[in-house]
Amino acid sequence: MTRFELLSILDRSKSELSAAEVARRAERIDRPFKNQLRTQLSRLHRWGLARRRWDRWRFEPYAGRGAFVYRITRKGKARLRWHNSVQKST
Questions:
Q1: Residue 8 pLDDT > 80, yes or no?
Q2: Three-state DSSP string of the chain
Q3: 1, 60, 74, 80: most buried, per Cβ within 10 A?
């Protein structure tokens, strides 16, 4: 999965998504894919294309576990628009 496919999944979402939810939307749930996905999401965060925050109540209350949730930033939307325009012109 390329970073632009990942950005388009985050862009289509109405709310923040965890890595597991992104994997479900991509219809791939194997462990190596999830590990690669977490790496790609953290890179998008490092580059400023996605916002990340810790949601401690993501799964169920008092479960003792949380998850990082991601959403696309303005910079990420601009990069996605640029990619889509380049794809249309070629």
A1: yes
A2: CCHHHHHHHHHHCCCCEEHHHHHHHCCCCCHHHHHHHHHHHHHHHHCCCEEEEEECCCCCCCCCCCEEEEEECHHHHHHHHHHHHHHHHC
A3: 80
